[in-house]
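Hello,

I think I submitted the NAP job twice by accident. Can you confirm which output corresponds to this input? Input:
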Amino acid sequence: MENKQVAISHFGGTEVLEMQTSEIPEPKDGEVLVKVAYAGVNPIDVKTRAGIGWAAEQNKDNLPWVPGYDISGQVVKAGSNAELFNIGANVAGFIGFPVQGGGYSQYLCVPETELSLVPDSVTLEAAAVLPLAGQTAAQALNKAQVQEGDRVLILAGAGGVGHIAVQIAVAAKAEVYTSCSEDNLDYLATLGAHAINYNFAPVSQRLEQVDVLIDLVGGDAALDALKCLSDDARVITVPTITAELICEKAKLLGFNASGILVDPNKEQLDTMLYMVSVGLLKTEIYHIYPLTEADKAHQQIETGHTRGKVLLDMKC
Ligand SMILES: NC(=O)c1ccc[n+]([C@@H]2O[C@H](COP(=O)([O-])OP(=O)(O)OC[C@H]3O[C@@H](n4cnc5c(N)ncnc54)[C@H](OP(=O)(O)O)[C@@H]3O)[C@@H](O)[C@H]2O)c1
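Support: Only one job matched these inputs. Its output is below.
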């Protein structure tokens, strides 16, 4: 048996994603070996592959590098002192973040304390949607201290982070507004948000008195959205590349603004898996590509118009 992985040996376009094989690793003390079923694909994977951002800087002397931070799969072997999971248990995790990665692997050793048990009623596909994107959504809303009755604007509600953020904000009884293209208006309405087509007119011309802005787009869209905030509004800007600019401008306007770097949290993933299991949270999957088509998965993320998440099927 071999361990197929998708790796990059230099930064560049999607053509630099190459298959490599390695030995199946042995779990060390406190680790389990996971047979990965699905790996989530996130914008940070795409940016790092292209040589952009902090994770690329950290990994530039550490190539080849296997991307991927979201995994779901099955425990197939336990190292010494690893006792939390039975062999055969379905698990999911937000692993190796932000430097190590490794999720685009068929087999991976992970400290058992970083993994969540996937309930029987949750598919491994749905579980792979949640780690990075779901926790970013939850942590951004927590940081903004969203409360019942708040008017919350989420830019890019249809994306991987956005579709989870919309649902958590609705569940918190906030009044949720979100921006999207025409194609996603109905989808976001079904999640309980007031959807605004950003191609029709700038969001600032359609909305006012917003208490909380969750910015998942950055740049000009975020600068425009600052115009519809109420006094003392809270701003969380998630794309790291423009965070400094948006925070500076927001603070000049008197708002409480900050960026965020998602922090893997097993208990939070447990909670989200529970919410999916009881129907309180719905995961949206745009497409599942075989691991041999990781390039197509990255191209899809690069369109900037993925609804929900893109996954890699690591089983084939
Ligand atoms: N700081 C952190 O720790 C952290 C963590 C996770 C993600 N991020 C960053 O957060 C951003 C969002 O991540 P993601 O995974 O949600 O990305 P994603 O899934 O690729 O987002 C795609 C979505 O963006 C929407 N969109 C594109 N342009 C838009 C615009 N001008 N206005 C409104 N919606 C727009 C698209 O909807 P339409 O097709 O309807 O346009 C699409 O559904 C990325 O920049 C990512 O790198 C940062």
